[in-house]
Amino acid sequence: MTHKRFVLTFPPELTSEPITYKLIKDFDIMVNILNADISPGKIGHLVLEMSAPGKVLKSGIEYIKGQNVECVPLEKKIFYQADNCIHCGSCTAVCFSGALTMSRATNEMVFNPEKCVVCELCLKACPLRLFSIDIE
Ligand code: SF4
Ligand code: SF4
Asked: Which residues line ligand 1 (CB under 6 A)?
């Protein structure tokens, strides 16, 4: 499963198109709307997080672009200073995506960037401030 964030820009004549509905219904893509600024007759912006297997996600993006809607990936990543981690586990309590977990085998915190949805909750949760945003 791939999780990615995108900024969609709708031309004024397309702001009422049910694009997110179709992504969910026709492509079986999980869609989480993070921000929306859409008004009839104006250029609209939507920040979405889409979750689906890679090929499905690609098809969904092609569909969006085929509707003349601009679809630009939001390239933010979480940077983690692993060497300084004391494995207290505080960050795992806020990470709903499962990107931060405690290993039962080693009792150490494990970061899986593939699962990270860049919600940024771990930035404040870590007492040592080991997480930061990396904007590409
Ligand atoms: S940004 Fe959010 S999803 Fe990513 S590791 Fe931190 S808490 Fe987990
Ligand atoms: S909160 Fe910070 S120190 Fe604690 S496990 Fe997470 S990254 Fe490591």
From this structure: 78, 94-95, 97, 99-100, 116-122
